[in-house]
């Protein structure tokens, strides 16, 4: 059974997903591809096994992706964008979203905090919220 949701949070642990962005220039393309596939598959599996089943069909959504870093190194949140693309693709593969076009995804935001600041284990937190203030034609108002 699939539930129409207004918002949902998906917590991902780092047990099997290495903490590295996909825009690392020193990495070979095949290594980035393997990492991307791992992230996408992990997110899709996690999204599919969420109870109750979640599906966002009733309007465009905003996606906020937070990295809870395992250390206090300085990180630039806008550099997370390339590494988070497979997370959004995994939400589509997992059935949360019909696709990740502008018809279904209005906004994607990124943030980064040391995990010990929020008393949580290192990982990714993905928060998906239905947008209520979008024009009915979609896209830019």
Mean pLDDT: 76
How far apart lie the N and C ends?
35 Å
**Largest beta-sheet characterization:** 4 strands, mixed
Unreliable spans are 134-141
Q: Could you say which structural class the secondary elements and strand pairing correspond to?
A: alpha/beta
Helical residue percent band:
10-25%
Arrangement of strands in the largest sheet? 2-6-4-5
Q: How big is the Rg?
A: 15 Å
Principal-axes geometry comes out as globular
Strand-residue proportion:
25-35%
Specify the CATH architecture: 2-Layer Sandwich
Q: Report the strand count.
A: 6
Brief sketch in words of this structure:
The chain contains 2 helices and 6 strands, in the order ββαββαββ. The protein has 141 residues and is of the alpha/beta class.
Give a written overview of the molecule:
- This protein has a four-stranded mixed sheet, with helices on one face. It has a two-stranded parallel sheet with strand order 1-3.
- The model is unreliable at 134-141 (pLDDT under 50).
- Helices cover 24% and strands 28% of the residues.
- It is of the alpha/beta class and 141 residues long.
- It contains two helices and six strands.
- The termini are far apart.
- The chain has helices at 29-48, 80-93, and strands at 2-4, 7-13, 53-55, 61-69, 105-114, 123-130.
- It has one domain (2-130): 60s Ribosomal Protein L30, Chain: A, CATH 3.30.1330.
């Amino acid at each position: 059974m699939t539930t129409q949701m207004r918002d949902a949070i998906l917590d991902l642990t780092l047990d099997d997903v290495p903490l590295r962005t996909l825009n690392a220039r020193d990495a070979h393309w095949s290594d980035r591809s393997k990492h991307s596939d791992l992230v996408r598959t992990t997110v899709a599996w996690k999204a599919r096994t969420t109870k109750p089943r979640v599906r966002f069909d009733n309007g465009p959504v905003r996606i906020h992706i937070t990295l809870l870093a395992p250390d206090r190194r300085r990180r630039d949140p806008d550099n997370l964008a390339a590494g988070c693309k497979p997370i959004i693709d995994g939400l589509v593969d997992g059935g949360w979203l019909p696709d990740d076009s502008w018809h279904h995804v209005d906004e994607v935001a990124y943030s980064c905090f040391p995990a010990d600041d929020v008393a949580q284990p290192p990982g990714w937190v993905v928060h998906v919220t239905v947008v209520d203030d979008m024009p009915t034609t979609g896209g830019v108002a």
